[in-house]
Design brief:
alpha+beta; conserved putative lor/sdh protein from methanococcus maripaludis s2 fold; Helix Hairpins; four-stranded antiparallel sheet; 5 helices; 35% strand; disordered C terminus
Length: 388
């Protein structure tokens, strides 16, 4: 044997190396594992990443609302200006804040020229009527003479044409008189409806221009809240739904949905909801927050503190068997105080992490604390093993 090994140096080196490794990895037969070391009582448990509090997902009956923000605008703001131009403003009878009624005179223009023009048109009408009477009398005489054959047919036709022309001149004069009377009435600028004057840009002595703004009026003193609602919530809003509005100074106003805009703003992905405000002292231009009642029903509720925002999405951590957490993406449906309604992602009765959820990762093992802060049940045993 020795002679064969001597003649085979490669085999000798392999055997020597194997004996050396066996000696280094061996252990005396009387050596026993230390208590608590893996190998005697199974695999060592995973250490708890964090101690958290938990709560179950509950199903609850809710009165659902859609929160929104927006500004208060006039329902209709009427621009008031003169119908005629070139005349001096003689009198302004209202100011900003004045409450007016439909048909009330607001501004008077100087009407001396209009009165003179009206008198001229009245005289022209009387002259045309007199000419018509003469033409009618001449036609009657011509028809009487024509019966005896003393008047040619051509002369009779001329008399008839003159009568028709006289009638046309009367109608023209009457139309011009009506125009003058209308212009005279327009010298008094009147309120087209009841409301409150919100702006004044006219002063005594100004020369009025047709259609130029003199006053602005809040029609019927009606205001509306234009709420900006995310496009995902627009389908829940219907005409007639009740709205509670809170202004910047804390006042609460009541309203009702009048109309939902048929389009969505591409820049903000929101749609406008027009809300009629009933009562209160809302002023155009005010900013307000509100909640639109969108029906009732059962919903899944979780604490707001349990929701973690990551990568632009909302997540909760569901505590499963052996206190291993699973990250779940949820869809928010509404906030009710310190509770949040979720539309999907979890089921009623599942346990989720609350305090400490923001520090967890998917697959972490947690220790669960009771309301008083003590570890409970298997969580306490797992935490103790982790400490060992």
């Amino acid at each position: 044997m020795r002679m064969r090994m001597a003649h085979n140096p490669f085999l000798f080196s392999v055997v020597a190396t194997a004996l050396l490794l066996a000696g280094c990895s061996g252990r005396p037969q009387d050596e026993t594992p230390a208590p608590g070391v893996a190998g005697e009582s199974g695999p060592r448990p995973a250490a708890a990443a964090l101690t958290v509090t938990t709560t179950p997902v509950v199903r609850q009956e809710l009165v659902r609302t859609v929160p929104a923000t927006g500004s208060i605008f006039p329902w209709q703001e009427v621009v008031i200006g003169p119908e005629v131009g070139g005349y001096r403003v003689a009198e302004v009878l209202v100011d900003v804040g004045s409450r007016v009624r439909a048909g009330q005179v607001l501004v008077r223009l100087s009407d001396d020229l209009l009165q003179a023009d009206l008198a001229s048109k009245q005289a022209a009408l009387r002259s045309a009527e007199a000419a018509l009477e003469n033409a009618a009398a001449a036609l009657r005489r011509g028809e009487s003479v024509a019966k005896s054959g003393s008047l040619s047919q051509a002369d009779l036709d001329r008399l008839r044409a003159e009568h028709v022309a006289a009638q046309a001149r009367v109608e023209t004069a009457r139309a011009e008189l009506d125009t003058s009377e209308l212009r005279l009435r327009y010298a008094q600028v009147r309120a087209p409806d009841s409301g409150t004057i919100t702006s004044r840009t006219v002063s005594v002595g100004d020369i009025a221009q047709p259609g130029a703004e003199m006053l602005r009026m809040l029609r019927q003193d009606r205001v509306e809240w234009r709420a900006e609602v995310p496009e995902a919530q627009l389908s829940r809003i219907k005409t007639g739904q009740a709205v509670t509005i809170t202004t910047a100074d804390g006042r609460t106003l009541e309203g009702k949905v009048r109309m939902v805009a048929p389009t969505v703003q591409t820049s903000t992905r929101t749609g406008l909801v027009y809300v009629d405000i009933t009562g209160g002292d809302a002023r155009p231009g005010m900013f307000a927050r509100g909640e639109i009642a969108a029906g009732s029903g059962a919903g899944l509720m979780v604490p707001v503190a349990s929701v973690v925002m990551q990568d632009g999405y909302s997540y909760v951590f569901v505590v499963g068997p052996d206190n291993v957490v699973e990250r779940r993406r949820v869809e928010q449906a509404g906030v009710y105080g310190d509770m949040l309604e979720v539309a999907s992602g979890v089921q009623a009765g599942e346990i989720i992490a609350v305090k400490g959820a923001g520090f967890l990762k998917d697959g972490d093992t947690v220790a669960v604390a009771s309301a008083g802060g003590e570890l409970t049940g298997a969580a306490a045993m797992g935490s103790a093993q982790a400490v060992q």
